[in-house]
Amino acid sequence: MTTTEHEHLLIRRAREGEAEEIARLNNVFAAEHLMLRRTPEQIALDIDDYLVAVNPWGRILACGALKEYSPSVAEVAAVAVAREAQGNGLGRDIVAAVEALAIKRGVLHVFALTLQPAFFEAIGYQRVDRARYPEKIRRDCLGCARRFACNETCFAKQLHIDAALAA
Ligand SMILES: CC(C)(COP(=O)(O)OP(=O)(O)OC[C@H]1O[C@@H](n2cnc3c(N)ncnc32)[C@H](O)[C@@H]1OP(=O)(O)O)[C@@H](O)C(=O)NCCC(=O)NCCS
């Protein structure tokens, strides 16, 4: 994919009916143990929390979601960029769109648990102790088969309302 093609991508909220395509993108990487597996049904239930990047033909090339844990804290989750579109700034842009949604909902603190620490460092996240997010541990980690051998790193970012206005 060229930079020019990237410029023709539209990042927008996901629509009903796109859950299957999002699940397909997500589960390519779930099969590689880079992301949690998600079913189309799970995604459909949370479709209002998803952002997608689509090309002019409507194909989804990237996705990301905002998972709210409290009125002030949310997770940047399910971030995936199709392999052929990686390395062009799309991951950065989709996370920025998830952050803008967080700000719109009044959430100014976001975190992510990831196997891609260099990506989150590159886009301005700070490494933090996951114990700061007991709700996340209760909701996802305690039921995870790899809870005693987890190699995910926790990152967080404080958002600013001006950033959303400038975007
Ligand atoms: C991780 C992922 C989302 C990055 O998307 P991308 O579109 O390739 O990333 P970008 O082009 O926006 O990169 C933004 C910055 O992160 C850096 N970066 C991205 N992936 C990186 C990696 N694997 N290792 C090191 N740096 C990386 C880029 O070099 C760039 O830095 P720069 O702006 O200083 O040049 C994408 O590789 C992906 O979908 N991977 C598989 C699924 C996955 O692991 N998702 C994360 C789950 S939390």
Folded structure, characterized:
With 167 residues, the chain is α+β, with helices and mostly antiparallel strands. The protein has one domain (3-166): Gcn5-related N-acetyltransferase (GNAT) (Aminopeptidase, 3-Layer(aba) Sandwich). The protein contains seven helices and seven strands. The chain has a seven-stranded mixed beta sheet. A hairpin with a 5-residue loop joins strand 2 and strand 3 (60-68). The two termini are 24 Å apart. Coenzyme A is lined by residues 29, 34-35, 79-81, 86-92, 112, 114-116, 118-119, 122-123.
Overall body shape? globular
What Rg, in angstroms, do the CA atoms define?
15 Å
CATH topology name, in short, is Aminopeptidase
Strand content: 15-25%
Considering DSSP H and I runs of 4 or more, what fraction of the residues is helical?
25-40%
Report, as a whole number of angstroms, the end-to-end distance.
Answer: 24 Å
Record field, number of beta strands: 7
How would a textbook summarize the main sheet? Answer: 7 strands, mixed
Counted by DSSP, the helix tally is 7
Structural class: alpha+beta
Topology:
Blueprint: H1 3-7, E1 10-13, H2 19-30, H3 40-45, E2 50-54, E3 60-68, E4 73-81, H4 90-104, E5 109-114, H5 117-122, E6 126-127, H6 134-141, E7 153-158, H7 161-166
Parallel strand pairs: 4-5
Antiparallel strand pairs: 1-2, 2-3, 3-4, 5-7, 6-7
Gist of the model:
The protein is an alpha+beta fold and 167 residues long. 35% of the residues lie in helices and 25% in strands.
